[in-house]
Amino acid sequence: MEPGSSTSGARAIAARGWGYPHGRIWPVQIGRYTVSVHNHGFFRLDGGAMFGSVPKALWAREAPPDAENRILLATRSLVIEDGEHNILVDLGCGDKWSEKTRAIFRIGEIPPQYPNTPTPQNPLPGVTDVILTHLHFDHAGGVSRLGPSGLEPCYPYARHYVSKQNLDTAKHANLRERASYLAENVDILEQVDLVLTEDGQELFPGLTVHLSHGHTRGLQWIKLTDGATTVAYPADLIPTSKHLPVPYVMGYDMCAERSMEEKARFLDEAVAGGWIVVFEHDPDLAAARLAFDERGRPVVAERIDCAN
Ligand SMILES: [Zn+2]
User: Fold this and answer.
1) Ligand 1 centroid to residue 35 C-alpha, Å
2) In a domain, 2, yes or no
3) What's the DSSP call for residue 110?
């Protein structure tokens, strides 16, 4: 939150859709909360790394790669407002990249099919609470920015939430994850109001965080429910709708077997509960209700699009 800004600023922005087209259910009302989504922008990662052991012949049909084998990905936040709090879940890649890195990941690409995509804006106005699913750069990049006197928090007045296990993991990143856990997104948390969360913790009435460890240790996925309607935000547990099949685990994941177990459990609950599942990285589908087909495979039962 900028000094002097008010929560009504965020509401007004959310009502406009933050420039990003909302689909027919957005925003959805869950008890006292108005829930919507916001894409911080697109970027690209290697398609092979995104689909792990899945052959390119299969994933390339669903997620067409560019000439350098990179696929288009969104960085879609969950936006939760209750009149008192404006809660943002994950923050995208942020905007403090060198030209070289920006080009490697195509950060800020505006694809022709989504010409109204906003360029990364840091910070968004009126945010009171920031929940970080984990501290990989494409989720926590928007936590800090380069100000006139160096690195500074984007949301110095907001309360931030990250799991204790993920913060520990990020601070002592192993060789494989070191390129994803950047000090500029981790150390900056010492300068903000930080809550270290535990598995199953209720951060707000009806809003709980749930730890998983297959993608990275301590990833917290989000569930928000009023008993009748539930929105879930699995983050990198299911980054896109193309990753619904249980064996479609990212090459980035630290433990594929654990990812599969955690995903299968999540899918069982999501289908049984009729949850609206938000896909953080899906370029084309913001969310969906899910089902199992006649062979028991998880599929999209109801598309909840952003634009169309
Ligand atoms: Zn990640």
Assistant:
1) 23
2) no
3) -
* Burial classification of residue 296, based on how many CB atoms lie within 10 Å of its CB (0-12 exposed, 13-18 middle, 19 or more buried): exposed
| Helix or strand (DSSP H, E) at 112 | none
Whichever domain contains 76, its CATH number is 3.60.15.10
* Cα–ligand 1 centroid distance for 216 (angstroms): 7
CA distances in angstroms from 239 to 10, 15, 28, 182, 286, listed in the order given: 26, 26, 21, 20, 11
Helices then strands, each counted (H, E), the chain? 8, 16
Determine, yes or no, domain membership for 150.
Answer: yes
Measured CA angle at 213 (ends 262, 249), to 5 deg: 55
- Kindly give the distance from the C-alpha atom of residue 4 to the centroid of ligand 1, in angstroms, as a whole number: 33
User: Ligand 1 centre from 45 Cα, in Å?
Assistant: 12
- Classify residue 224: in a domain, yes or no: yes
pLDDT along the chain (308 residues), means of 10: 40 40 68 92 96 97 96 95 95 94 94 83 87 98 94 96 98 93 97 98 98 98 97 98 97 97 98 96 94 94 71
CA of 141 to the centre of ligand 1 (A): 11
Work out how many domains the chain is built from and give that number.
1
pTM: predicted TM-score of the whole model, two decimal places:
0.91
Measured in Å, residue 134 CA sits from the centre of ligand 1 at 7
State the distance from the centre of ligand 1 to the C-alpha of 296, rounded, in angstroms.
27
C-beta of residue 140 within 8 angstroms of C-beta of residue 175: no
Closest by alpha carbon to 158, among 89, 218, 108? 89
CA distance 135 to 219: 9
Query: How far, in Å, is the centroid of ligand 1 from the Cα of 72?
Result: 15
Domain that holds residue 86: 7-304
Whether 240 maps to a domain, the answer reads yes
Kindly write down the DSSP assignment for every residue of 201-251, as one continuous string: -EEETTEEEEEE-SSSTTEEEEEEE-SS-EEEE-GGGS-SGGG-STT---T
Enumerate residues 6+ apart whose C-beta is below 8 A from 84: 7, 128
- The answer to whether 123 and 13 are in contact (CB under 8 A) is no
